[in-house]
Amino acid sequence: MIEKRTKYWLLAIFLFTLALRLVLAFYTPNFTYESYFHFRQVESITQTGLPTYHDTLSSGGKDFIFLPLFYYLAALFNLLIPITILAKILPNLLIASLTIIIYLIAKKITNDDKSALIASFTVGLLPVLYSTNSFVPESLFLPLAFLTVYYFTKLQEAKKYLYYYIASFLLLSLTSSAAFLLIMGFGVCLLFYFIENKKINRAEAELIIFSTVFFLWLQLLFYKNIFLKEGISFIWQNIPAEMLKEYFPQVSVASAVLLVSIIPFLAGIYTLYNHLFETKSQKSTLLISLAISTAFLAWLRLIKFEMALSFFGIILSILFGIFYRDLEEFLERTKMPSLKRVVLPVIIALLLLTMVVPLMSTSFNQKIPGHEEILAFQWLKENTPKDAGVLALLEEGHLATYYSQRRNILDDQFILTENAQQRFQDLNDLFKTKFQTHSLGLLEKYRVQYLAFTPKAKEKFQISKFNYAGAGCFSKVYDNETKIYLAKCRLAEAALGEG
Amino acid sequence: MAEKEKPNLTLEDGKNKYFLRLLKHNWKYLSGLILLISGIIFISNFVRKKPLLAGGESCYHLLHLQGIIPAVPENWWVAVPIILSLAFVILALGLAKKLDLPRRETTIFLAILILTPAFILPMATLSAYLLAAVLSLAGLILLSQKHRKIKWLSLILFLLATCVDFFSSLFLVAVQIIYLSNYADKSEKSHFLKKWLIPIITGLVALFGLIFLKTGFFIGPFHRGQVFADLISDLGGYSGIGFFVLIFALIGLMMGWKKRFPATIWIYVLSLGTIFSYFLNTEMIFYLSLIGAYFAALGLIAIFDRPWALETVKKFTLFIVILGIVFSTLTYLDRVSEYPPRAGEPEALSWIKANTPEESIIFTLPESSDYTEYFSQRKTFYQLRHPLGKGREAKIKESASEIILNSTYMDITSPILDQNNISLIYLPPGFRQTYPAEQGLLFLLKNEKFKLVHSTEGAEVWVYQKE
User: Fold this and answer.
1) Which residues of chain B have pLDDT under 70?
2) In the sheet where A450-453 sits, what is the strand order?
3) Which residues of B touch A207 (CB under 8 A)?
4) Between vectors from CA A62 to CA A57 and to CA A67, what angle results, nearest 5°?
5) With 90 as the cut, is the pLDDT of residue A22 above it?
6) Model pTM score
7) How far apart are CA B274 and CA B295, in angstroms?
8) How far is B247 from chain A (nearest CA, A)?
């Protein structure tokens, strides 16, 4: 049972985190580029009851395969709340709920309210989680994953936690394939028990077997076609080679430390070492296993950098709570136990100092389209034929399909995209090439008539315009910060014209 | 009247009357499963108007069999894989009974094996490895008899099994050693050399066959092997083992070591050798699947035999495991009916047979060569063969084949075609989707020296005219 005072503090942390996130979310207009793909799925469910599994607009027409729980949950709320409001509230509410879940886990491990509240406060301010305008399934995955971990740690207390665990794991498996992180963590945990010759709790071992088997089966069921088509390279999701660096970058310790904040990072690493090798505490073994497996998979570049960092950061927050408890116990044993009174305010001050600026920076530096860009894509919907194709940057691909409702050449949903590598190269060529015949050939190949030149394209390719968009074959049909051109010629005509 | 023999079942089995019935009549149910799976594949091929026997290996053997028994219609050979698969199951059960192996473990092993894609493919094709396995099992049954003359009869079957390839023979010798070390009648007094004479003779004959009769280290390959994909069927490989079978095989590997069954060390050595040979030639997946199914059975029994703290979770987990294995099998059955030769290919190749000179040489994809030769009755330029068995000439042809497929210059391709008297190019269905249109062979086909003479359902026949 949680004490009343602790409940108030926990509620305060939750409300503070939620308020901060909502302020930042509403302060920043629009959403991250990838969010618009998820909007379409939610709206499709709201209208038809089913997601868009086959899309004629994306990358020349393709199938999508994804786990549906997040979309159905959002669609449920979408019945009452418009998507643009829902997309700001729901993900932030879910991430803010991590403060409560992390409190519960930390309380279970430390058996100390203050330490648990510290952990909760830390996760509430974790910079890597401050993509406040990102409407993605990961916002449901993270709280569900740690809820599952919480129920796992409570298994031995009552039978009801077994059912809660099974239910939350089921929901987790239907949300994201990243549930694999949990499975790996369980595996590493069993390995530690085996190495240290510790007795494994039978119920826990059986649930781990069940979880592994169930997860594998569900993945096979949903992603059968991807496994058959891509083979082992399904891990890299058909991402073009040049983009792999972005999704699976070489882990930079400096940027990682900044995103999880230096104090939880250092304290977490110390606690990890201490509990693993010195005290060999069984309670924190699962957490440590999750941290190690996440770091290992990230190092092998088998999971996306952002996901790995988020997961790792949350675990470090819990470990930081454990560190705080250990620190208090240590001070208790020293000749200056009165220092305990100073520790908490100092830690909170340090956390605020080291986390607030990075979290604001994360929130303000989200990759979001400008208002003017969106207007341009909306203009395309009203003023172009329904079967028209649009040239837009890869990241803007979802703007073309969502706002313009027109075909794009490529977007960041690479799985099951035919010739993704070739499309990626051609897309880049269309921005960089100087030759009209080359560009017209590619535009014909992808049946694209409209070319959107946004400020982002200008910045990305360091060009001020399309170098081939001469007056003869291209006319400017929209002129603002974003410019839209219409390709009037076909390749044969252009060649004659040049001749 | 002799007492009816009670099946060798554990107490646990008696709790489930369906499982008990399955064990009691295991040969019926396992045979029924084989007939069901084979039937699905053959009926699917029939409906899609494809040859009933799929795969390059079938055509490779049919080509040779035609020379020996020309009168047998092609479709009659369909009976061979069915008979061999049934024989495998019956012989395996017979051998298990003879060696007093637990019926439950044997049944689960065979059930897993039958549902494994690496065993399903030989059930629907003419497979030399399946034949070798059947001959080996039959030989072991004879070897396990008490009568000395019958024991020696087994040598005939073993020597026949060595005719497949050298690595199959090594596998057989290893199995003979395992049998003689652990299961042979230890009360029987025999001279050391006499006891080991059969594996020694088998090994020597295999070596003789390799050196003098050119049996080869490996038969085939009959498709382009991919080590990882061919191992796990769910990753789109040619055959392979399912995810769940692989996981439980790994568990079984660990459990088996702990429990130390008879012949454990030998089985682990055999496993290592088979894994090594798989990396050399992915066609060895057949033998790897035998070992995989064995350890998967061990793993499954080790996990589910003991009472669980959470019985409901146990039942649900077992249910999902069975679902998972069956799902992998069904996914594979869906794919195997798309294996070459596809519909339209026999027709296109028969056109070649009817309309081209007998001495014509066809260039096609190496993995299509075997069935191209069978249906067209013409020689192909180059077939896939294992590097260990390749001579210098084969290596030259291999690189020439790559050049023809990928070169964009007639100055380079034309001399190769001329020197090797290649007058026909056969493009199987799917070639145009796999190879780029603006480079390589597809680009060169626009040249006036090439003429499209026949096309049906994606299969194309081109004539190359020398200057």
Assistant:
1) 1-15, 185-194, 259-263, 386-390, 467
2) A390-391, A450-453, A483-487, A474-479
3) 310, 313
4) 105
5) yes
6) 0.86
7) 14
8) 9
